[in-house]
Design brief:
499 residues, alpha+beta, Beta-Lactamase, 4 domains, 12 helices, 15% strand
């Protein structure tokens, strides 16, 4: 604003010097029109105040230099007094109107700039999730737009203020400290808006970041590099930026709450599935064991040796089923906790497959058909884990393939690795369940009636072990019918080890 008044004085002085050589060539009233033009130009450039000063200076310059007697403020002709008064009134009115138009235009441009800045920041922050990046973007805009020496953002984390970023300096001790900001925020009225709190005699400002959860932080903008306080428009822009940051923080809080709620929901669903599966798989063999042992203890029943052996075999079967269920749960827990890391060594696939078949029930072993090429690369795997993978796939094939076989197992070398598959001739897997069957405790909708037993953990365990070895496993439809599970295992490094 001070530059506007200097411009007014300079414009009137220069124009007077330019006009003086032609004083004798034009009528005295014509100079008033030229001075009015100067007043309008000053009003358009600097606003109302400088325009009024220009009008007053032009009034005296016209009287002093262009109305006789020259070089004096005395006016001999009464008509000149009327002209002077009219000139002053018109000059002031024109200056006020033009200055107001200019000020309205300046405010409109400032609001347009403010809206563009806020829209630009909003567009960037909508897809942003990291608080550090958000702070860097906002503070960079503040420093660049307002010319602030530095800007700092504090965000409340676990009850304490955390300094996210400082622009242009990111030194830990630069600018206002968290303790000073805490003192300022503590003095704020509850429920008040995010008004700028003046610091350092009004040259720096601190804006609280208010969300539904309360004051979640503060935006501190230091004084300009060249000094001078921020005007009302700039403070309004800072308040808008503080509101935008507060919305970002609130969105983060709500997203965190939603994520936590979803995690709890998934945990409840998993717990329900666990209880349902475990209660069936543990209670069924326990009930059978209890019934069998109770029958053996009945004193009024005469048991021959063959009947006792049959009952004992049933007990062994139930104990094995119970042990398998508990083992599956423990394996899942160890795999998820990364407590069962693979101990890799080079092995022949045929040896692993033979161990997997031997782990099956005696009546199932002859139903397994194996088709392996004569030359296969060694695979660098954990022997125990891969026996478990193939055993689970074979047991799954018998369980959901009808139990009567046959079950086909094959392998072939492919580009970059080894492809292994286990195939049955059962009803197959619905297309929308090809991925779901690998989830924990999931059992196919159309196979539960055919196979009421099973924890729904076998395929989940197999997938985790395959992933730990850098491979993949997928479910496919077999031809002419049934389900096929295909495992891909990289073998580039294996061949080097084998060599």
């Amino acid at each position: 604003m001070q530059h506007g008044y200097i411009l007014a004085v300079f414009a009137v002085a220069v124009s007077t010097l330019v006009f003086l050589p032609g004083r004798g060539d034009f009528a005295k009233g014509q100079w008033a029109l030229l001075y009015l033009l100067i007043v309008v130009l000053v009003a358009g450039a600097s606003g109302t105040g400088p325009a009024m000063l220009a009008a007053v200076l032009a009034f005296f310059a016209w009287n002093f230099f262009f109305l006789p007697p020259y070089h004096t403020l005395v006016v001999h002709d009464p008509k000149d007094w009327l002209s002077l008064v009219a000139f002053l009134a018109v000059g002031v009115i024109m200056g006020i109107q033009t200055g107001r138009m200019r000020e309205r235009e300046s405010r409109a441009l400032a609001r347009e700039h403010e809206a563009a800045l806020l829209n630009r920041l909003s567009a960037r922050l909508v897809s942003e999730t990291a608080a550090d990046t958000m702070a860097e973007v906002v503070l960079g805009e503040v420093v660049e737009t307002l010319g602030a020496a530095s800007a700092t953002m504090f965000v409340r984390d676990d009850g304490a203020l955390k300094r996210l970023c400082v622009r242009p300096s990111c030194e830990p001790d630069a600018g206002v400290t968290a303790g000073e900001v805490e003192t300022i925020l503590a003095a704020e009225r509850p429920g008040a808006g995010p008004d700028a709190v003046a610091l350092d005699a009004g040259t720096s400002v601190c804006l609280p970041l208010r969300t539904r959860a309360g004051v979640s932080g503060a935006l501190v903008v230091e004084a300009r590099a060249g000094g001078g306080p921020y005007n009302d428009a700039e403070r309004r822009l800072l308040v808008s930026l503080a509101n935008l940051v507060a919305v970002f923080i609130e969105r983060q809080r709500l997203q965190a709450a939603a994520t936590q709620a979803e995690a709890l929901r998934q945990a409840d669903r998993l717990k329900s599935s666990l209880v349902s599966s475990v209660s069936h798989e543990l209670k069924t063999p326990l009930a059978a064991l209890t019934a069998t042992v109770s029958n053996l203890l009945e004193s009024d029943v005469a048991w021959d040796e063959r009947s006792v052996r049959d009952e004992l075999r049933a007990i062994v079967t139930d104990i094995a089923r119970l042990n398998n269920s508990i083992g599956a749960l423990l394996d899942v827990s160890r795999l998820e906790a990364r407590a069962w890391e693979p101990q890799r060594e080079p092995y022949e696939l045929a040896d692993i497959l033979a161990a997997s078949v031997d782990a099956l029930a005696v009546h199932q072993r002859p139903l397994v058909t194996v088709s392996l090429p004569e030359e296969l690369p060694l695979i660098d795997v954990d022997f125990v884990q891969w026996v478990r993978v193939l055993q689970n796939l074979l047991e799954n094939a018998f369980l959901y393939g009808g139990g009567e076989g046959p079950v086909m197992v094959g392998a072939e070398p492919v580009a970059g690795g080894l492809r292994i598959w286990v195939e049955d001739r059962g009803p197959g897997i619905a297309g929308d369940e090809h991925e779901a069957v690998f989830e924990k405790f999931y059992r196919g909708k159309h196979t539960q009636a055919r196979a009421p037993s099973g924890t729904g953990l076998g395929l989940a365990i197999a997938r985790e072990i395959v992933r730990a070895h850098g491979g993949t496993i997928v479910a496919e439809d077999a031809t002419p019918g049934g389900a096929r599970f295909v495992v891909f295992l990289p073998v580039e490094k294996v061949e080097e080890v084998a060599g």
